[in-house]
TrEMBL record:
The keyword DNA-binding applies. GO terms for biological process: DNA integration. GO terms for molecular function: DNA binding. This is Core-binding (CB) domain-containing protein. It comes from the Bacteria. Keywords: DNA-binding. Residues 77-172 form the Core-binding (CB) domain. InterPro entries: CB (IPR044068), DNA_brk_join_enz (IPR011010), Integrase_recombinase_N (IPR010998), Integrase_SAM-like_N (IPR004107).
Length: 232
């Protein structure tokens, strides 16, 4: 019979040849081959590896190959691509308001992604982020040209930090850590006024009087809750 003429470790399987090899008490499948010649070659190679102590089970080889392919895919992930994933995850979170997600998307698309979006996450450095925030901070304010700062950089830093922290928390993203640079401090955007920015009682009363009747009390209540110091 044909089966008795086959080498040990090779059996017929659906008109093909299945190869197995025992190593350290465990039987490993080496695959199924179309021809006996290929099956013999696979068995001989595996036996040689077993003799040299270099045998690696095919299942382990396949797992390592899949892991390498997955790593290559995650390593290729750009900030653009991750930001979109992150925003989609936030949008799907019922605890996040749509307005918050919309605000984050606007900040990233306007102030981050045009310059840093094409950078791979694994290549992004704290130095790049710090330099970008410094560039944003140096831009003049569009609404208040005479201001000492434009108020953009601190907000961008908060959103970008959250975005990168989201990537760090994902085990399938190749960003284990990121030393985010010190965020720019918040500087008042509006130029300083001679009399300061603290409302007087008269100013608060005038604002309340200028509001519709049902909103006038809200102005006074808001001032009280915010612990606004009125000048005398």
């Amino acid at each position: 019979m044909v089966a008795t003429s086959l080498p040990r470790g090779i059996v017929r399987f659906r008109e093909r040849y299945r190869v197995r090899l025992e190593v350290d008490g465990t039987t490993h499948s080496l695959g199924v081959f179309d021809t006996l010649r290929d099956a013999r070659a696979a068995l001989d190679i595996a036996k040689g590896q077993r003799a040299r102590g270099t045998f690696v089970p095919p299942t382990q080889v396949r797992a390592e190959r899949r892991a390498a392919e997955a790593k290559a895919e995650t390593d290729a992930l750009t900030l653009n691509e991750w930001a979109e994933q992150w925003l989609e995850d936030l949008a799907a979170n019922p605890e996040r308001s749509p307005s918050t997600v919309l605000s984050y998307r606007s900040v990233l698309r306007t102030h981050v992604l045009p310059e840093l979006g094409s950078t791979r996450l694994v290549d992004l450095t704290p130095g790049q982020v710090a330099a970008h925030l410094a560039t944003l901070r140096a831009k003049p304010s569009k609404r208040h040209p005479g201001a000492r700062a434009n108020g953009v950089a601190p907000n961008v830093a908060r959103v970008l930090r959250s975005c990168l922290n989201g990537a760090i928390k994902r085990p399938d993203i190749a960003l284990a850590s990121f030393a985010f640079p010190e965020a720019p401090s918040q500087t008042p955007v509006r130029p300083a006024e001679p009399d300061g920015d603290i409302a007087t009682p008269g100013q608060v009363a005038a604002m309340a009087a200028a509001m519709p009747e049902h909103l006038g009390a809200a102005v006074l209540l808001t001032a009280w809750k915010a612990d606004i110091r009125w000048k005398y």
